[in-house]
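#onboarding

Welcome to the new folks! Below is a worked example of what a typical request in this channel looks like: someone posts a single protein sequence, and someone else replies with the predicted structure as tokens. Don't worry about understanding the tokens yet, we'll cover that in week two.

Example request:
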Amino acid sequence: MISRRLVRIKALQSLYSFQQGESLSDFQWPTLTPKQKTYFDDTLSHLIESIQQSHDFYLFLLDFPFQLSQYLLEEQALEKAKFYPDQTKIRRLGLLDRMPLVKYLHRAVTGSQRKSFAFDWNQLSAQLDTFYQWMQEWDFVNDIDFFEQPTFEQQQAFLEEFYANLFETKESFFDTLNDYYPGWSDDELYTTREIEKTIQGAQSNGTVPVANSPSSNSEEVELAQQLFTTTAKNSLAYESQISEISDNWDPSRIAVMDLLIIKLTLTEFLHCPTIPVKVTINEYLEITKNYSTPNSSRFVNGVLDKLRIVMEDQGMISKSGRGLRDK
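Example response:
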């Protein structure tokens, strides 16, 4: 499942793109012009697609060991065709092919892909030899190559370490992915966690716990739609509420990203009854640290704290559900 933080980030990015293309203050809800309605609908569609692509890219990376194994089998065939083949090299080139888990992951990926799946390892085929050379450097690769048929648990441990080394020690791997898929830097934490969870949850009978792609009625998409739509429609009202808490804070003088973060927070305060206020504030402060200026977090925190106090005193914030009431 796509994390709520990633959904918030993508909603923020879509609102920023929307704001840069057309000022929210020019939109009079609900009487939009046909052009405005099309622009709004297109931005919302792109937001939903970006969430679905996050899941797609997770599947794409989950299939990496299999795609690398196919490349190595081609190299193995070339080596076998030599007059004096190197048997040690032949064995090493077949390492991933000796792991059923790699094939299980591939089967799960192909069974979960959307028709509009946009990613293709053939587009990165020139990089596969480099990736294999990295494998040659890792001691755990030599360790597992000793076994003709690694146990399922050994395969899981190997793949976990395989991905960990790629993500943690190979900056050029990150750059390659970022060049190929611009959303990678945003998705990295979600994707790496999901890959680890999927490998750990795989079973020796071939069962692999891959979540379905987010659909139009999935929790992630519904939250993204609500955050984007509600924030856009209430943009001017939110600015009035921000102005009321202090004469010194004029919304027109607040950085665009900071203002959008504050507005998204207000949407969760007022229109997301099952999300605790403290969770909302903490989440958006973390997002502010990564997506705005170095001094923004302190400023945004001050504004949100004042808004929370005023709105709670006025009874505007209503949270329900077990454990969701702030005391």
